[in-house]
Amino acid sequence: MFFALTHACGPASFSPQSRQKAAAAPSRVASPPREIVLQRIELFLLFAPVLLVSMVAHEYAHGYAALKQGDTTAQQLGRLTWNPIRHIDPVMTVILPLLTYFGGGLLGQPLIFGGAKPVPVDPRNYRSYRRGDIIVSLAGVATNAVLVLACVALIVIVGLVARMLPAASTPVAILQTMLIAGISFNLVLVAFNLLPIPPLDGSHVVKHLLPPALAGPYQRLGFYGMFLILALLLFLPRALQVWMRPMSIVLEKAMRIVMPYVVPSPWTSIF
Predict the structure, then answer these.
(1) Catalytic-role residue among 35, 42, 59, 252
(2) Domain boundaries, the chain
């Protein structure tokens, strides 16, 4: 599974500058570089756990769906687990996201790019190859969609709790900030992983719609998948923005639902 959080993706940007504008006094003086770096670290520590949970849920769903379709590969290799360590790839999950986030993106574009360690599956074990491959491929994005609904519900619930217990307003505001990020992150994961670029999840559906003569060469594009994805992000951001537009609309609808329940705070004001 890959993820790319970028302005081209549509959902809200979580920049240190936006947090600064929400929390600062009326002064228009820009923060010194050191303070901006500290703000970036603060936001990273706040949102990284949200993204990690979303990725783990996505990968676990693949393994669980494969198990239900007759493939025990993930279970036998110890990958059917909620333990995030088992799903972390040192380069794709740690080094690359850190470099792109703190390095200012790629080629000057604001971007967090990375991925989780794919859960191993063996489609030959599915009771029905075509049906099983489609179900397993869509299980991850379906789980991310469910997480979006869960985040919306939790924002409303904890917002009502804060109204009854004003003393809990600050921790509730921090939690709501993480949950709003969860809505955005999971919508991006849904849209991005449905891109019909091998080896992304969407390609596993597309290949079953192609004639056999084309399906094979199409799948082999997966060897160059990373480069194709980076090329899309860097050189065709408008095309990516169009693809992400439906999820941006969903995000706007979700924000309209939750904002009446969001606790006013410097944390939540970044949205």
Answers:
(1) 59
(2) 2-270
